[in-house]
Amino acid sequence: MTAIRYEFIKTCKQTGARLGRVHTPHGSFDTPTFMPVGTLATVKTMSPEELKAMDSGIILSNTYHLWLRPGHEIVREAGGLHKFMNWDRAILTDSGGFQVFSLSDFRRIEEEGVHFRNHLNGDKLFLSPEKAMEIQNALGSDIMMAFDECPPFPATFEYMKKSVERTSRWAERCLKAHERPQDQGLFGIVQGGEFEELRRQSAKDLVSMDFPGYAIGGLSVGEPKDIMNRVLEFTTPLLPDNKPRYLMGVGSPDSLIDGAIRGVDMFDCVLPTRIARNGTCMTSQGRLVVKNAKFAKDFGPLDPNCDCYTCKNYSRAYIRHLMKCDETFGIRLTSYHNLHFLLNLMEQVRQAIREDRLGDFREEFFEQYGFNKPNAKNF
């Protein structure tokens, strides 16, 4: 009995996007879905109760950061991540691979794993497929990620080929080292950059290992959006229809819709909370920077079409005042709004799939949001 099960519900006749449900040991969630990121076992400034009020069924936590602080053994002693952070719904943990490659100034990749320096204090550390599994088994997440090599963009075909081959070997080692397959599902990560041949090879290798789910890695790392969409178009059909598909690190509204149209089920990104801390808000009319002086006497909500706690109770002028005074409550309000906006957007996407009109919804949303305009501001 696998810990993770994907239930297919229907395909959008207009686009081919799919509606489904993922069942985990800590409940089920509907897909396509967005996963708020709680890097250090907390979604910044948000309580678990607030996330539940937004109908978040799954959040993401970060293996690398929790390994360094407080340490995976402490989380294990606490009874696992769910008890430690008082969250009784699903949790996905990444493998730590992306942080090793993005945060460390020094790293040396070997077949056994990666030598690198702790970005906090400079200590030498080593992370391998086996260690990544040990940490995630201790954390007790519902969905774990295989340890993969995260190549930069752009990278040469030759470099990417070696990287894909190593990622496949590491994936096999992860499967062997995984100690709790009955209550933690392990996803493989398809790599290969923008090269279709390598994506095909990576997908073939991983599908043969029969993971309960698959992620598409190596995107949203600086490549243009048309390249990301093209890669998705030839990658998602390579993955099994009866397993969930997860696009890592993607959270802008346009990319969520375009990813769903191309068959993706799960997304995550720090974007909504990161930009919220600078006063940038997602609204039905587009990007709004509430710190701007023009909102000093604007007593309307951030988004007149939003029914979130922030928009029902507080004005742009008040939130601007809080942000200008560095009051934490301002960041809480903008973070709540942005997370609600994306979770609500995904519910609208699911409803459009039910009604076989996701293509129409995309056009309406892009027009209203301003993505169709020349020089449109994105995040």
UniProtKB/TrEMBL annotation:
<dbReference type="InterPro" id="IPR002616">
    <property type="entry name" value="tRNA_ribo_trans-like"/>
</dbReference>
<keyword id="KW-0479">Metal-binding</keyword>
<keyword id="KW-0819">tRNA processing</keyword>
<dbReference type="Pfam" id="PF01702">
    <property type="entry name" value="TGT"/>
</dbReference>
<protein>
    <recommendedName>
        <fullName>Queuine tRNA-ribosyltransferase</fullName>
        <ecNumber>2.4.2.29</ecNumber>
    </recommendedName>
</protein>
<dbReference type="InterPro" id="IPR036511">
    <property type="entry name" value="TGT-like_sf"/>
</dbReference>
<comment type="function">
    <text>Catalyzes the base-exchange of a guanine (G) residue with the queuine precursor 7-aminomethyl-7-deazaguanine (PreQ1) at position 34 (anticodon wobble position) in tRNAs with GU(N) anticodons (tRNA-Asp, -Asn, -His and -Tyr). Catalysis occurs through a double-displacement mechanism. The nucleophile active site attacks the C1' of nucleotide 34 to detach the guanine base from the RNA, forming a covalent enzyme-RNA intermediate. The proton acceptor active site deprotonates the incoming PreQ1, allowing a nucleophilic attack on the C1' of the ribose to form the product.</text>
</comment>
<keyword id="KW-0808">Transferase</keyword>
<comment type="subunit">
    <text>Homodimer. Within each dimer, one monomer is responsible for RNA recognition and catalysis, while the other monomer binds to the replacement base PreQ1.</text>
</comment>
<dbReference type="GO" id="GO:0008479">
    <property type="term" value="F:tRNA-guanosine(34) queuine transglycosylase activity"/>
</dbReference>
<feature type="domain" description="tRNA-guanine(15) transglycosylase-like">
    <location>
        <begin position="15"/>
        <end position="369"/>
    </location>
</feature>
<feature type="binding site">
    <location>
        <position position="148"/>
    </location>
    <ligand>
        <name>substrate</name>
    </ligand>
</feature>
<dbReference type="InterPro" id="IPR050076">
    <property type="entry name" value="ArchSynthase1/Queuine_TRR"/>
</dbReference>
<dbReference type="GO" id="GO:0046872">
    <property type="term" value="F:metal ion binding"/>
</dbReference>
<feature type="binding site">
    <location>
        <begin position="94"/>
        <end position="98"/>
    </location>
    <ligand>
        <name>substrate</name>
    </ligand>
</feature>
<feature type="binding site">
    <location>
        <position position="218"/>
    </location>
    <ligand>
        <name>substrate</name>
    </ligand>
</feature>
<feature type="region of interest" description="RNA binding">
    <location>
        <begin position="249"/>
        <end position="255"/>
    </location>
</feature>
<feature type="binding site">
    <location>
        <position position="306"/>
    </location>
    <ligand>
        <name>Zn(2+)</name>
    </ligand>
</feature>
<keyword id="KW-0862">Zinc</keyword>
<feature type="region of interest" description="RNA binding; important for wobble base 34 recognition">
    <location>
        <begin position="273"/>
        <end position="277"/>
    </location>
</feature>
<keyword id="KW-0328">Glycosyltransferase</keyword>
<feature type="binding site">
    <location>
        <position position="311"/>
    </location>
    <ligand>
        <name>Zn(2+)</name>
    </ligand>
</feature>
<dbReference type="InterPro" id="IPR004803">
    <property type="entry name" value="TGT"/>
</dbReference>
<feature type="binding site">
    <location>
        <position position="337"/>
    </location>
    <ligand>
        <name>Zn(2+)</name>
    </ligand>
</feature>
<keyword id="KW-0671">Queuosine biosynthesis</keyword>
<dbReference type="GO" id="GO:0008616">
    <property type="term" value="P:tRNA queuosine(34) biosynthetic process"/>
</dbReference>
<feature type="binding site">
    <location>
        <position position="308"/>
    </location>
    <ligand>
        <name>Zn(2+)</name>
    </ligand>
</feature>
<feature type="binding site">
    <location>
        <position position="191"/>
    </location>
    <ligand>
        <name>substrate</name>
    </ligand>
</feature>
<feature type="active site" description="Proton acceptor">
    <location>
        <position position="94"/>
    </location>
</feature>
<feature type="active site" description="Nucleophile">
    <location>
        <position position="268"/>
    </location>
</feature>
<comment type="pathway">
    <text>tRNA modification; tRNA-queuosine biosynthesis.</text>
</comment>
<dbReference type="GO" id="GO:0005829">
    <property type="term" value="C:cytosol"/>
</dbReference>
<comment type="similarity">
    <text>Belongs to the queuine tRNA-ribosyltransferase family.</text>
</comment>
